Amino acid sequence: MTPAPAQGPAPAAGVAVISGAGRGFGAALAAVLAAEGWTVYGIVRPGSAAKTGTDGRVRFLEWDIAQPCPDGVAGVLAGASIDVVVNNAAVGSNQRTLAAVDPDSLAHLLDNNVAGAVRVTRASLAGLLRPGAGGRRPVVVNVSSRLGSAALQANGEFAGFGTSSGYRLSKAALNMLTLSLHEEFGADLDVWSVHPGALATGMGRSGASKEPATAASELLRELSEPGGTGPRFFELGSSAPLPW
Ligand SMILES: NC(=O)c1ccc[n+]([C@@H]2O[C@H](COP(=O)([O-])OP(=O)(O)OC[C@H]3O[C@@H](n4cnc5c(N)ncnc54)[C@H](OP(=O)(O)O)[C@@H]3O)[C@@H](O)[C@H]2O)c1
Question: How far is the CA of 13 from the centre of ligand 1 (A)?
Fold first, then answer.
């Protein structure tokens, strides 16, 4: 995969923690940041690191984030000075109607997509609150979806869209995590929810054509901004905020 070139000023290389770094957007972001000189800790499920292809420039940490943080991973993260945490790992669901959502699968979605982000953020917190190498305010990036917007849902924007109710619930909860983290840590951290766009990945809708490397370069560009602007929810590649 050839990363799309970043436009605009490149941020100083820092240290990033990315969950779900084995494929899709997470793998593309790990490759783009590593190519720019960042130190990247890529969280992948146990046993999957060997299948990835980032040429040894990413340090893989094996962790199923639906489980507690393994001691070895906790030690690595606690000892690092971290500039950016990207809560990217997520699972999808094809249970389209509320009636089709069975409670066990909803618990599985929330455990991966929401509690997983909480686990990764908590494991990274001491490192985030330590001055990092990149020289910007540290950032927690929750990779959400426009489908997590309660306001767009209320406006009927997703009527007939055919995506999973459970997935929408999980991304709305992730957006609330963004706001809650801002409330608690906003003096020291930036916290963003980002919609990456309709990506040509395993999770992407059929016909989705945006390359994950393009979205990765767009996020890199956002990281070149000084920060300190409060909680944000926006689509990568667009400066317009999304409604919560
Ligand atoms: N694709 C889109 O069009 C789109 C649109 C809006 C938002 N998003 C969001 O963007 C993010 C990336 O999506 P994607 O399209 O790149 O998805 P993807 O190709 O399905 O990749 C998801 C990644 O998350 C990892 N993962 C899931 N659960 C995990 C767990 N418990 N522990 C560790 N790793 C776990 C997967 O690991 P395995 O390989 O081991 O399964 C995989 O590497 C997600 O948060 C998604 O909701 C995507």
Answer: 24
Domain of residue 161 covers 15-235
Do residues 86 and 26 make contact, with C-beta atoms less than 8 angstroms apart? yes
CATH number, domain with residue 209: 3.40.50.720
H or E element at residue 75: helix 71-79
Beta bridge partners of 17: 41, 85
Considering only CA atoms, which of 190, 192, 200, 150 is closest in space to residue 170?
150
Question: Which residues, in sequence order, are bridge partners of residue 86?
Answer: 18, 141
Cα–Cα distance for residue pair 228/139, rounded to 1 Å: 9
Q: Among 17, 61, 62, 88, which residue has the most ligand 1 atoms within 8 Å of its CB, making it the best to mutate?
A: 88
Mean pLDDT of the residues in the chain: 90
Return the DSSP state at 77. Answer: H
How much distance in Å is there from the Cα of 24 to the middle of ligand 1? 7
- Checking if the pLDDT of 58 tops 50, the result is yes
Residue 42 lies in a domain: yes
* Spatial contact of 222 and 236, defined as CB atoms under 8 Å apart: yes
Q: Is the whole-model pTM more than 0.70?
A: yes
Residue with CA at minimum distance from ligand 1 atom 29? 89
How many Å apart are CA 243 and CA 163, to the nearest integer? 19
Which pLDDT value is given to residue 204? 80
The pair phi, psi for residue 207, each rounded to 5°, is 90, -10
**Residues near 131 by Cβ (< 8 Å), separated by ≥ 6?**
81
Q: What is the mean pLDDT of residues 120-140?
A: 90
Residue 1 within a domain? no
Ligand 1 atom nearest 199 alpha carbon: 3
